[in-house]
């Protein structure tokens, strides 16, 4: 296998194994340097999706707001929780979940859907990862309008701790990148992976306190012992580090510690996968 592989920006005059840490990190660095390109492509993805629409990208916020309103009203009645408390909980949970699920599901097809670019455009693989995460970030920022409206209608005690939502989301985006790398490479090699990931992601949605609350389990004597099982759901910790500051709730340091450990372990696995198989993606797609 030669050095000038498709999708490789390394100087072909350099003689080194295609399975090297240097090449893996060089791919990430080269992709990051092309911020103007993937930034433009990510924005164009959204514009293309809503082309010839009167409201355009505003439909992103409208659709999420309608879903949050419907689920918030329904489950607040079922769980007998004041809607002023429960509706923001559901809306912010959906806001975060849409980003998480987008990185997971679209990440599993990120290289497959960019087959033409990978085969014929000499660009780093990480460019497609950055483009995906940037697109999901734009969706997230659009949906923040729903959170802002709810904070006006149902005021929460927001303070300086609410600024923690910024590093919390940054940590979420960093994890979205390694998830997309890992899922994308595996799904490119094994085409049964995307539907499996989609099914598992749907299951995780119901196991994560998005449209329900952990306090509901703790207040239920029959289910109180199961409340601790939620801690084994990694998505739960990422949802909480963003949701707590956005709703002015008490910040739990344990959630930050868990997400930090997951970030280190996840990126280690993604880098190993990128090191060993990045040169083969162009032939698998």
Automatic annotation (TrEMBL):
GO CC annotation: plasma membrane
Chief location: membrane
Domain ABC-2 type transporter transmembrane: 39-245
Domain of life: Bacteria
Transmembrane feature ranges: 54-78, 90-112, 132-154, 160-186, 193-212, 255-274
InterPro entries for this protein: ABC2_TM
Location in the cell: Cell membrane
Keywords noted in UniProt: Cell membrane, Membrane, Transmembrane, Transmembrane helix, Transport
Annotated GO biological process: lipopolysaccharide transport
Record-level Gene Ontology MF annotations: ABC-type transporter activity
Topology of this chain in the membrane: Multi-pass membrane protein
The family this protein is said to belong to: Belongs to the ABC-2 integral membrane protein family.
Protein name: ABC-2 type transporter
Species whose genome carries this gene: Pseudonocardia autotrophica (Amycolata autotrophica)
